[in-house]
């Protein structure tokens, strides 16, 4: 079971990755926008709803693409960090 803050983060990450609004998610999932807001703030602990939001946003394939992008950002950051250390 994911912790409440991890569930909240997952909704925010999906929204950012898909560049969609809380209203878009609410409309797609037939829920009120305040429910999405409460999920993102950690006030609402509904793993099944988060599952449906991720599933409708592209599921595992979308998460895999997002992880690849995050890994590329991490690699770039490490190179930049090492470059900074060389100049010190």
Short recap of the structure:
This protein is mainly α.
Note the main sheet: none
Helical residue percent band: over 70%
Order of helices and strands: HHHHH
Q: Report how far apart the termini are.
A: 44 Å
Mean pLDDT: 91
Unreliable stretches covering 5 or more consecutive residues: none
Structural class, from secondary structure content?
mainly alpha
Number of strands: 0
Radius of gyration: 16 Å
Total helices: the number is 5
Bin the strand percentage: under 5%
The shape, in one word, is elongated
Task: Please characterize this protein's 3D structure.
The chain has helices at residues 4-18, 22-28, 33-41, 47-57, 59-87. It is 81% helix and 0% strand. The protein contains 5 helices and no strands.
Which features characterize this protein?
5 helices; 88 residues; mainly alpha; 81% helix
List strands and helices in order, with pairings.
Blueprint: H1 4-18, H2 22-28, H3 33-41, H4 47-57, H5 59-87
Helix pairs in contact: 1-3, 1-4, 2-3, 4-5
């Amino acid at each position: 079971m994911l912790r409440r803050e991890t569930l909240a983060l997952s909704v925010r990450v999906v929204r950012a990755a898909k560049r969609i609004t809380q209203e878009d998610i609410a409309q797609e999932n037939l829920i009120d926008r305040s429910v999405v807001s409460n999920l993102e703030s950690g006030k609402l602990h509904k793993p099944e709803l988060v599952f449906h939001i991720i599933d409708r946003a592209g599921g595992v394939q979308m998460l895999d693409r997002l992880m690849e992008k995050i890994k590329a950002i991490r690699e770039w950051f490490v190179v930049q960090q090492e470059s900074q250390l060389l100049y010190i």
